[in-house]
Amino acid sequence: MGFRNKKSPFGRFFVMMKHMKFYLSSYEIGNEGKRLQELVSQNNRKVAYISNALDFATDLERRRQGEEKDISDLEDLGFTVELVDLRNYFGNKKGLEKKIRGFGAIWVRGGNVFVLRQAMKLSGFDVLLKNLAGADNNILYGGYSAGICVLAPSLRGLELVDDETQKPYTEQSKIIWDGTGILDYAIVPHYKSDHPESEAVNKLIDYYVEKKIPFKTLKDGEVIIME
């Protein structure tokens, strides 16, 4: 993608991009909330909040609480947040594109990366995202955990962390192993962090090393910024 990568001494990564901006956090907002405020256009502070990585969940109250915390964290930064459910756009890519283009930022939360990938495909969000990433615009893609893992070329290896057999949508019966390919490397969140998935993440790193798959690790709090 033709970027220059430089890590600062403060635990964040800066990558110079030509097109779409990215704010990729290991967990929740991370330690660069002020930079997130600066990255989103002052002319459009609306954020599309996407939580479809949780569509496998059966504990709906826990899901609601998680969504409310994410939305509250974004609102505390001065954003106007609207939940956009990709299920409402299955088979309606044009409708989703019209909706998404009204926002200054997209925020995709964590959960199950395989479920998120299914929702992206069924709604056409994966194609829309690639089009946005390759165009000159001010929109920002942000998110954490599964929301950033899905940007990799492939999801192979992530079954060591997430259950790849989760299929909450009757329209999608096969596991999707291809990532969106927005990035040419994988991101490993929750590295050496106080997170329930941190132990499984070590196995994922071993897999990437064995398969010679390029990756970047992020500890909780760290963020990759592309602008």
Question: How would you sum up this structure, described in words?
Answer:
By secondary structure, the protein is an alpha/beta fold. It has one domain: Rossmann fold (3-Layer(aba) Sandwich). The protein is about 30% helix and about 20% strand. It is built from 7 helices and 10 strands. The strands form 2 sheets. The protein has an 8-stranded mixed beta sheet. It has a two-stranded parallel ribbon with strand order 8-9. Helix 7 links the parallel strand 8 and strand 9. The longest helix has 17 residues, at about 60-75. The chain is globular, with a radius of gyration of 16 Å. The protein starts with a strand and ends with a strand. The model is unreliable at about 1-20 (pLDDT under 50).
List the helices and strands and how they pair.
Layout: E1 4-7, E2 12-16, E3 21-25, H1 33-39, E4 46-50, H2 60-76, E5 80-83, H3 93-100, E6 105-108, H4 113-123, H5 125-133, E7 140-144, H6 146-149, E8 186-188, H7 198-211, E9 215-217, E10 223-226
Parallel strand pairs: 2-10, 3-7, 4-5, 4-6, 6-7, 8-9
Antiparallel strand pairs: 1-2, 3-10
